[in-house]
TrEMBL record:
Residues annotated as domain C2H2-type: 2-29, 30-57, 58-82, 83-110, 111-138, 139-166, 167-194, 195-222, 223-250, 251-278, 279-306, 307-330, 331-358, 363-390
Family, per entry: Belongs to the krueppel C2H2-type zinc-finger protein family.
SUPFAM superfamilies in alphabetical order: beta-beta-alpha zinc fingers (SSF57667)
A cellular component annotation (GO) from this entry: nucleus
Protein name per UniProt: C2H2-type domain-containing protein
Function in brief: May be involved in transcriptional regulation.
Entry annotated with the keyword Repeat: yes
Plastid as UniProt keyword: no
InterPro entries: TRASH_dom, Znf_C2H2-type, Znf_C2H2_sf, Znf_C2H2_type
Annotated compartments: Nucleus
Keyword set, alphabetical order: DNA-binding, Metal-binding, Nucleus, Repeat, Transcription, Transcription regulation, Zinc, Zinc-finger
Gene3D superfamilies documented for this protein: Classic Zinc Finger (3.30.160.60)
Pfam families, per database record: zf-C2H2
Length: 400
């Protein structure tokens, strides 16, 4: 019996133990003569050589497909996972997968981005990240020509053309286009959340959601607009931003046909026609048409004032106060170049150019139906009704 001095695992022969030890030391003594890639075991190098020669000498008796490495493929049928992590005992079908997993425990990140210095556990992850700086999209759909920065994105896209969903959830029967997506989906049934934020400890069911969350701590914005160089924390945010440059507005209001870049913006706008206010305060019952309006309202109940002014030390429920000291007016009118501290002030000002009178409360008089561009004008108008009523009541009671 031979004993591994790193993890204590035992082996029947010394050769097996030495081969295993290379997992801990990182030694790769076998080198491919074609591409110089190195390997822990000679057998792994021989299998790798077939990627150059194209040789597939093994035929699967279950599905009939030919492979250069039959052992790995058979585990997709049997579900066998013979390699166990010595730290957390998680099982893997391939040694390479276990080696990659071990870096979660060691924290090893040997690959560094030459543009921003961010480090990665795997070389292919670093290469994919580098494309966020270069904008390169090397994976092209052979059907429609759309290009992608990652191979897996192309795989997901191709299923839209083929309609193929070969993986089926054993719990709910849902069909999935890719095996990794099935693994992620299964966690909705098991509740498993294996990815943990290294800063606050919050757990997630998939790695991408954890990465997005972690950026709320670090402030990292790795995705850069190729036109104006503005940076974003998520690709979806950058895609939304790009519509400002292209002018794309694919969503149209069913009532007035006004067009919007985002579906959620169109849905919020349509509530100005219907009067719908689905977001309701649980404390006082006041309702709002948009979710973002509810959050600042709740602070009127809690008294929360998380924003502290560095000039006068006063605290506020919203960030806009700082502009009083700095003089910053980030919201600029495209028609006359007048600037405003707050976005809603710009929106109100724009109506002086467009003449728009929004048909919604609080700019719609509920008594006579007259419409107003500004809330202050509507309030003044409402007083004409209250004065009329007071005069009538005085006449009926003989006071005039």
């Amino acid at each position: 019996m031979a004993l591994c001095s790193f993890c204590g695992k035992t082996f029947s022969t010394k050769d097996q133990m030495e081969s295993h030890t290379r997992i801990h030391t990182g030694e790769n003594p076998f080198t491919c003569s074609v591409c110089s890639k190195t390997f822990i075991q000679k057998a792994n190098m021989i299998r790798h050589m077939r990627t150059h020669t194209g040789e597939k000498p093994f035929s699967c008796s279950t599905c009939g497909r030919a492979f250069s490495n039959m052992v790995k493929h058979m585990r997709t049928h049997t579900g066998e996972k013979p390699y166990g992590c010595p730290v957390c005992q998680k099982k893997f079908a391939q040694t390479s997968h276990m080696v990659t997993h071990m870096k979660i425990h060691t924290g090893e990140r040997p690959f560094s981005c030459s543009a921003c210095g961010k480090r990665f556990t795997l070389k292919h992850n670093m290469a994919a990240h580098a494309r966020t700086h270069t904008g390169e999209k090397p994976f092209v759909c052979s059907v429609c020509g759309e290009a992608f920065s990652r191979k897996r994105q192309l795989g997901r896209h191709m299923s839209a053309h083929t309609g193929e969903s070969p993986f089926t959830c054993s719990v709910c029967g849902k069909t999935i286009t890719q095996k990794q997506n099935l693994v992620t989906h299964m966690r909705t049934h098991t509740g498993e959340k294996p990815f943990c934020c290294p800063i606050c400890g919050k757990t997630f069911s998939n790695k991408s959601n954890m990465s997005k969350h972690t950026r709320t701590h670090t402030g990292e914005k790795p995705f850069r607009c190729s036109l104006c160089a503005k940076t974003f924390s998520q690709t979806s945010h950058m895609a939304t931003h790009m519509k400002m440059h292209t002018g794309e507005r694919p969503f149209s209001c069913s009532v007035c046909e006004k067009r919007f870049a985002l579906k959620r913006s169109m849905v919020a706008h349509e509530r100005t026609h219907t009067g719908e206010k689905p977001f309701r305060c649980l404390i006082c019952g006041k309702a709002f048409s948009q979710k973002r309006q509810l959050a600042p309202h709740m602070k009127t109940h809690t008294g929360e004032k998380p924003f502290c002014c560095s000039f006068c030390d006063k605290t506020f429920s919203q960030k806009s106060h700082m502009a009083i000291h700095t003089g910053e007016k980030p919201f600029r009118c495209s028609a006359c170049d007048q600037s405003f501290i707050q976005k809603h002030s710009l929106t109100s000002h724009m109506r002086t150019h467009t003449g728009e009178k929004p048909f919604k409360k609080p700019f719609y008089c509920s008594l006579c139906g007259k419409r107003f561009s500004h809330k202050s004008n509507m309030v003044k108008h409402m007083r004409t009704h209250t004065r009329e009523k007071s005069s009538l009541e005085m006449a009926l009671t003989g006071q005039v």
